[in-house]
Specification:
By secondary structure, the protein is of the alpha/beta class. Helices cover about 45% and strands about 15% of the residues. The longest helix is centred in the N-terminal third of the chain and has 19 residues, at about 10-25. The protein is globular. The mean pLDDT is about 95.
């Protein structure tokens, strides 16, 4: 039998893959896809604890029986089911907007809306802490784009003014922010941002991934009184507070239908992607009915308990980053110690996230603890003490 030879191309790729792995290991950037299993959940984004709620499961099963496991086609090629339209109507009603367009994920919604607004005549100005999906959408859009210092509207105005005074200004400008940021958990000044956009004739795009169904009134844009502002677009995910899967773009004002029609015809992640699985749409629709003020208030109470417990530990002074959102962070000195703390907590029955470079724009490694509405306060208090003890054990 002839001796098997390895093609030179395979050798090159093998060396490259092994080299990249070595670089990740040296920089403490190696990740795994470990499962949460039956661990006490301080890690997921299922803020309201609806992911396994029987009503949500029933909604998913009902849609599954009607439409099957998948939509079988894109929304513009026979992949739209009645459950998609029902979900879009419910999302519009819940947020006070006029129209909605549902995507297969929050990631594809962000890429789709920015690419649909892009082109050589557009300029996107993104907060420096914008989610990767927003940055990717800007890069793919064909538009010019810039970032400005996090939550610094003076810096954003400087860029708006520079464009206005340029010899050939971009006629279409979009200011991109998140209602609640995933890194520090701080909130964007939405009313001021909207006023700034109105002054410069720009559109404000707000990613409500961490606020939809997780803040009073169910929407940060609605709480700011901007839900019927025509020059404010909203994206959101259905995979956090609603415990399901999918994403959406929401429109208000007199041109809401025109905006929806435009994205339906231009957003490549809508046109060429198989539609959101009907079961996920059914689960999200059922979850909206459970995302009540009472449940959101319980989430807020558990968030306060988490924030106050962590902040009260004197040995963590200066390291707890109390946030406006439902994720609280504790700074760790090195990525490797953050990973070690997560591993120890897994052994002790707790699922906790750690964020480290390059996922964080400021290069700081953090343990991230997420509050949930369905946590019993007494059990949560015990869990938090275990977390604190583990952190101090890893970094005494």
């Amino acid at each position: 039998m002839a001796e098997l030879t390895i093609a030179p191309e395979a050798t090159v790729w093998d060396g490259w893959l092994r080299g990249r792995r070595a670089v990740r290991a040296k920089r403490d950037m190696q990740r795994t896809d470990s499962a949460r299993g039956t661990l006490y959940d301080l890690a997921s984004n299922d803020y309201l604890g609806l992911g396994t709620h029987p009503v949500v499961s029933t909604g998913a099963i009902k849609a599954l029986r009607v439409a099957g496991a998948g939509a079988s086609a894109s929304r513009v090629a026979s992949g739209t089911w009645e459950i998609h339209r029902d979900l879009e109507t419910a999302l519009s009603n819940y947020t006070g907007r006029s129209q909605a367009l549902v995507f297969s994920s929050g990631y594809t919604a962000n890429i789709g809306v920015l690419c649909g607004m892009g082109g050589p005549g557009s300029l996107f100005l993104l907060d420096a802490h914008s989610h990767a999906s927003l940055l990717d959408g800007a890069k793919l859009s064909g538009a010019a784009w810039r970032t400005f210092e996090h939550n610094n509207l003076s810096a954003a105005e400087h860029l708006l003014r520079a464009n206005r005074n340029a010899p050939a200004p971009k006629p279409r400008v979009v200011l991109v922010v998140e209602s609640l940021y995933s890194v520090l958990g701080d909130a964007a000044p939405l009313e001021q941002a909207a006023a700034l956009c109105a002054e410069y004739g720009a559109v404000l795009l707000v990613d409500e991934a961490h606020s939809l169904a997780a803040v009073p009134s169910g929407s940060a844009v609605r709480a700011a009184g901007l839900h019927q502002a025509g020059d404010v677009l909203v994206t959101a995910t259905l995979s956090k507070a609603l415990g399901a899967q999918g994403g959406a773009v929401l429109f208000g004002g007199p041109n809401a239908q025109l905006w929806r029609e435009h994205l339906l015809n231009t957003a490549r992640t809508f046109i060429f992607d198989t539609a959101l699985a009907p079961a996920a749409a059914g689960g999200a629709l059922a979850a909206l009915g459970l995302a009540t003020g009472e449940r959101i208030a319980q989430l807020a109470a558990n968030t306060r308990l988490m924030r106050e417990t962590l902040s009260a530990e004197p040995r963590l002074a200066g390291r707890v980053e109390a946030s406006a959102g439902h994720v609280q962070s504790v700074r760790m000195n090195t990525p490797s110690r953050a990973v070690s703390a997560v591993a120890l907590l897994r052994e002790r029955g707790y699922a906790v996230n750690c964020f480290r470079p390059p996922s964080v724009p400021d290069g700081v490694s953090r343990l991230r603890l997420t509050a949930h509405a369905n946590h019993h306060p007494e059990i949560l208090a015990v869990a938090l003490q275990s977390v604190i003890g583990t952190i101090l054990e890893v970094e005494p």
